[in-house]
Write a structure and sequence with these properties.
alpha/beta; 2-enoyl-CoA Hydratase, Chain A, domain 1
Length: 270
């Protein structure tokens, strides 16, 4: 398959491929010494988030990832990668810890969206996401977010405020699913493939709009087809970029991060 010629919907299908590697696969490959840390110190431990510390060629870093699960049992346990508010609170707890010990942070985004259930809303889902957005813009350590497969709505954006945002080539990043978009715009969820084309949710689209900073190439058959090459490219880029960002004065890093998000959506009439 020539990934330069496939449609937006084809990329949605590849992003959701049942054999596509999850965050756990990526972590196991790149961070073999990863040590997971549990709980938000308020309610519980959200299994849809894997958070912990690791080293990247000797560099201590914090890793925060959304995990969908691979088997049916794992998917149920991980709530299909849809976090509850305690997941976002666990994530920001680890970010503040990283800031205290001056560790860079790597976010791995892979969620169709935050869990919209009643219990999640009762425990403050919207507030937890908003709190993350507020906190992340001023965190005084370098941060990089990468969309591994799906980046859906505020559930993804809650760990998507970073100094750089990357996407794997066949990942998608959007305000909601194509099916949801089609239900609203066309009143017909079966027009999801048509909606995907107008949503501009692919890595190529978002790179052109300067929403993301880098695209990680995948094998022609998709990331599930020999992911090692793409993982190695990601690891190399991660190490090089963190080294560059760590050299930057904190005030300059924060100002550049702030400007990055202030400029999103800005346009000029000519």
């Amino acid at each position: 398959m020539d990934t330069n010629k496939i449609s937006a919907w084809d990329r949605v299908v590849l992003a959701r491929h049942p054999k596509r590697p999850t965050s756990k696969t990526l972590i196991d490959y790149i961070f073999p010494d990863f040590l997971e840390i549990h709980g938000d110190r308020l309610f519980g431990d959200d299994q849809a988030f894997i958070c912990g510390i690791a080293t990247l060629n000797g560099m201590p870093i914090t890793v925060i990832a959304q995990e969908k699960g691979r088997t049916t049992e794992e998917k149920i346990k991980k709530n299909f990668g849809m976090p509850h508010p305690e997941g976002y609170r666990k994530a920001i707890r680890l970010v503040k810890q990283a800031e205290k010990f001056e560790r860079p942070v790597c976010f791995i985004i892979d969620t169709p969206g935050a869990y919209p259930g009643i219990k999640a809303e009762e425990r403050g889902q919207a507030n937890a996401i908003a709190q993350n957005l507020t906190e992340l813009i001023t965190v005084e350590v370098p941060m990089i977010s990468v969309v591994l497969s799906e980046g859906g709505s505020g559930g993804a954006l809650a760990i998507g405020v970073s100094d750089q945002v990357w996407m794997f080539e066949n990942a998608i990043y959007s305000i909601l699913s194509p099916e949801g978009f089609a239900s609203i715009l066309y009143k017909d969820s079966t027009k999801a493939s048509e909606a995907a084309e107008v949503m501009k949710l692919t890595a190529k689209d978002l790179y052109e709009f300067k929403i993301i900073d880098k695209i990680i190439k995948e094998p022609n058959g998709g990331l599930h087809d020999n992911p090692q090459t793409a993982f190695n490219d990601f690891k190399k880029s991660l190490e090089e970029t963190f080294k560059e960002l760590k050299k930057m004065p904190i005030h300059e890093l924060l100002q550049k991060r702030y400007n990055k998000y202030r400029l999103m959506g800005k346009f000029e009439d000519i």
